[in-house]
Design brief:
The chain has five helices and seven strands, in the order αββαββαβαββα. It has about 140 residues and is of the alpha+beta class. About 30% of the residues are buried.
Length: about 140
C-alpha cells in the first residue's frame, strides 16, 4: 500500500512524507508500527507516530510541506477554504498527545486534516487512501 500512497503523493507534486500502518503492528507503541517514504530531509516520524497513536484504526498519514511551488501553508488556504485546525507539535510527547486528543473531541477526527503550527505542514490522515484522495 505504501507504493500506492507514494504514487498519489508524488503525482500531485507534494513534498514531505507519507506512511501506512503495518497490518501486523498490533497495539500502539509497538516498534515497526508503520512504513514511510519521504522526499524531504526533515524528520516527520514524530508526527506519523502521534497520529497512529491517536487512533489505532488510522492506516495512512501524509505530511505535506510543499505543494508544487507553494509552501503548504499557502497552498492550504486555497485547498481548504474553510480553514484547518492548527496544532502545536512542540513539547513532550504527552503534551502533543493531549492537544491531539482535545482536537479529536472538537471534531478533528471527522475533518482528517490539520496544520502543524510550527512549520505550516499540512497533515492528512485516514482509515484508507481514499480518505486522502477525496480531499
Amino acid at each position: 500500500m505504501i507504493d500506492n500512497v507514494w504514487t498519489w503523493f508524488t503525482n500531485l507534486d507534494y513534498k514531505g512524507s507519507v506512511s501506512v500502518r503495518n497490518p501486523d503492528s498490533g497495539n500502539y507503541g509497538a516498534s515497526g508500527i508503520f512504513t514511510s517514504k519521504a522526499n524531504t530531509p526533515d524528520d516527520d516520524i514524530f508526527i506519523h507516530e502521534a497520529l497512529y497513536e491517536m487512533d489505532p484504526d488510522y492506516t495512512v498519514v501524509a505530511v505535506i510541506k510543499q505543494a508544487g511551488d507553494k509552501a503548504a501553508r499557502d497552498w492550504a488556504s486555497g485547498a481548504f477554504p474553510d480553514g484547518i485546525d492548527e496544532i502545536s507539535f512542540e513539547g513532550s510527547p504527552e503534551d502533543i498527545q493531549e492537544r491531539l486528543d482535545k482536537a479529536i473531541l472538537e471534531g478533528l477526527a471527522h475533518r482528517k486534516v490539520l496544520m502543524v503550527r510550527e512549520s505550516g505542514a499540512v497533515v492528512m490522515f485516514g482509515y484508507k487512501l481514499e480518505d486522502l484522495i477525496s480531499r
